[in-house]
TrEMBL record:
Composition bias type Basic residues, residue spans: 478-491
Domain DEAD-box RNA helicase Q: 2-30
Family: Belongs to the DEAD box helicase family.
Name by which UniProt lists this protein: ATP-dependent RNA helicase CshA
Stretches assigned to the Helicase C-terminal domain: 214-375
GO cellular component assignments: cytosol; ribosome
Amino acid sequence: MTTFNELGVSSPIMKALEKMGFEEATPIQAETIPLAMQGNDVIGQAQTGTGKTAAFGIPMIEKINPKERKIQGLIVAPTRELAIQVAEEINRLAKFKSVRALAVYGGQHMERQIRALKDGPHIVVATPGRLLDHMRRKTIRINMVQTAVLDEADEMLNMGFIDDIRDILKGIPEERQTLLFSATMPKEIRDIATNLMKDPKEIKVKAKEMTVENIDQYFVEIPEKFKFDTLNNHLDINSPDLAIVFSRTKKRVDEITEGLQARGYRAEGIHGDLTQGKRMSVLNKFKGGRVDVLVATDVAARGLDISGVTHVYNFDIPQDPESYVHRIGRTGRAGRAGEAISFITPREIAHLKSIEKVTKSKMKRLMPPTNQDAQKGQQQVAVENIIKAIDQKDLKNYHETANQLLQDNDSITVIAAALKLLTKERRDTPVRISSVAPISVKKAHGSKDNRRSNNKRYGSGQRGQGGRNQGGRNQGGRNRKGNFQKRGNRD
Ligand SMILES: Nc1ncnc2c1ncn2[C@@H]1O[C@H](COP(=O)(O)OP(=O)(O)OP(=O)(O)O)[C@@H](O)[C@H]1O
Ligand SMILES: [Mg+2]
């Protein structure tokens, strides 16, 4: 166990950490903070939800001179929501040092952003496209930046962003400190990264698997056309506090969302075609528990830290293993437990194996639950609610009515009726989700597939209520338009 005090963290930040409830440093924090405070360039790789934000945030804040109202720290992140979240965490950490971070991202009014920039933030957390826009307009000057961070570095150095990142880094003085962080770092990307840095120290927190141990990983082999009903059954059985359902295309996200709403679930969708206002309001409703199921493209796969996400469903298995790691990492954060359930069509089994090889973890097979299982699951939720009410012992006011009821009816009938009223009976509104082609191993970023060794430690287990296999012909037709989600979100 390492305390932040032992790492040489100064008292204003110690005070903030105490307020945030951080008692000890996580392994990535313990290793990174001293090295980065000495001025080293660092490539930090650690599993999802293990505190990488504070690992780069604390040394960055330590270096900042609050009296100098110039941008001294720059953090670049791939999505708008992540930029906002990272700026919030930095502001919490910097609260007692009079250091301020500002999130700058696409989809927000330029004028409002320019006004906020005039206030002189010390740290800017930006998405690449909008940052470049400001640099061109000279509304952001990064020539005083001492520390630059690429959060989700492998994503930022991937095809979609690499040119923007090069342009951004060109604007920062050579003698800068550069910190790169991610839960995944494919070798070819690490090679690009080292070229942008000065003798970087690589910190890779030792973990047997790339995924977090406290996420139970499952897969369900299911033909495309049964996916939606299977999802419904899972949601009914597991009754997640908050669940994220990832799908491959924006169109499918819309269709799944509408389908879930039609069946009576509190679901909302998020993807890159929505206005920023809508994206924010959906995310806020989800964080506040006013929406239980967030249906998303990979725009929500990286970095987002939402407590209470107990389940992640891959309605469609992602193309690359890294995406799988980040998606399921939206649950099981900061030591909490989580479940990840991936739907795999019969033709995608080979792809599943290739993901397992890279992540060095195994997904256990689940049989698709039946409608009956789902009904039982829902009744179980009602039972749990009744037991909770019994435990609270605050029932005196109901005794008289209960007695009257029992005079006219037998107890089983009364309880069954109460359970019926408390059970969410699913509407059987027909829902059609347009199908997509299955993912094949070849398509899935080919060269990455064979680069890591196999792992044979786990057998494939079973779980669930022993449902029947809703087997059938694979309905995975082709979606001619493609309509694939572009990686990341360039503004
Ligand atoms: N030392 C700590 N003690 C307790 N909680 C912490 C500590 N460090 C970070 N956390 C909390 O853990 C959660 C996850 O942290 P963070 O978002 O930085 O993870 P991450 O490693 O960046 O994950 P990802 O790879 O998904 O981006 C956050 O809610 C954060 O506030
Ligand atoms: Mg992060």
